[in-house]
Amino acid sequence: MKPFVEARALHYAVRGVHIVADATLSLFPGRLVVIVGPNGAGKSTLLKLLSGELHASSGEVSCCGEPLRRIPAWLLARRRAVMAQATQLAFPFTVEEVVRIGLDTLGVDARGEAADEIIARALRRADISNLARRKYDTLSGGEQQRTHFARVLCQLAAGRRSESCQALFLDEPAASLDIRHQLTLMDAAREIADSGVAVLAILHDLNLAAAYADQLVVMRAGKLVASGDPAKVLAGGLLSEVFGVHLRLCAAPPKAAFILPHGHARRIAWSQPAQTALRRGPLDNLVCEQGSEPCATLLKNENASTSFSFWP
Ligand SMILES: Nc1ncnc2c1ncn2[C@@H]1O[C@H](COP(=O)(O)OP(=O)(O)OP(=O)(O)O)[C@@H](O)[C@H]1O
């Protein structure tokens, strides 16, 4: 399969400081790539280089085999949607108007029944239909984040009418979300990837990264220091070193589960078989068990057995 977006030997420097160095990465249709790494590692900068928002100091990014910088903005808007880490809005838009921007950027008819249906679907998928008429600047942080997710869903849906291959870039899309909306958003990202879109997400939550990524990329100081199957990347000692925290492996638990942090007590990330099982498993089956220790939430899936990583 050919990559949809391909970056080779990318460098990006500001005033002689290398923010991204020698980054080579391909995004394939149907695959969800997650980038993790400490603050300032260069993750957002790399996402901007791959999405065409920034141009590399050296190296090349191509999309469908064409150099990204040669693709006109109107066509790029149809081929890829970007949810930035933070978005400032200059006018007092309603939620629906912000989501409609996803259509306006494509230069397509943003009025009419078809457009309304795309917008309604995006609002529903991001669970903000009830907020459609609210002013964006009166929303909570998580509601604003879901509004921008709806906007990019809307842009992708409209762009799909003319472009069969697309990419979705998500920069910390779940940072302000509660656990249900984190899972809902990542489920949607997974579904979008499964529909043939190349998805790249930056996440700080290693649980989410482990649960949803097809490929996990670790960045440190501008460089890609690991890339591959999440279970392998998480199981090695690299993450302890990169994040400066102690990580040790635990024995397999009796049931596959996704355990969320309880205070600062523990963080657990699942290996690939459990991720697959979890994705397919029911999310309404909530129990609370982990030996004698309490844990905040545990999503149980009876069918899987697995090992997991444990941050005490
Ligand atoms: N235009 C710029 N001028 C100077 N420094 C910059 C510029 N853009 C980014 N940087 C620096 O480059 C580094 C990487 O920034 P980037 O936003 O890509 O990091 P990140 O990995 O996404 O971090 P975070 O997890 O905190 O969001 C940071 O130290 C940042 O301060």
From TrEMBL:
<dbReference type="GO" id="GO:0016887">
    <property type="term" value="F:ATP hydrolysis activity"/>
</dbReference>
<dbReference type="InterPro" id="IPR027417">
    <property type="entry name" value="P-loop_NTPase"/>
</dbReference>
<protein>
    <submittedName>
        <fullName>Heme ABC transporter ATP-binding protein</fullName>
    </submittedName>
</protein>
<dbReference type="InterPro" id="IPR003439">
    <property type="entry name" value="ABC_transporter-like_ATP-bd"/>
</dbReference>
<dbReference type="Pfam" id="PF00005">
    <property type="entry name" value="ABC_tran"/>
</dbReference>
<dbReference type="InterPro" id="IPR003593">
    <property type="entry name" value="AAA+_ATPase"/>
</dbReference>
<dbReference type="GO" id="GO:0005524">
    <property type="term" value="F:ATP binding"/>
</dbReference>
<keyword id="KW-0067">ATP-binding</keyword>
<keyword id="KW-0547">Nucleotide-binding</keyword>
<feature type="domain" description="ABC transporter">
    <location>
        <begin position="5"/>
        <end position="246"/>
    </location>
</feature>
<keyword id="KW-0813">Transport</keyword>
<keyword id="KW-1278">Translocase</keyword>
<comment type="function">
    <text>Part of the ABC transporter complex HmuTUV involved in hemin import. Responsible for energy coupling to the transport system.</text>
</comment>
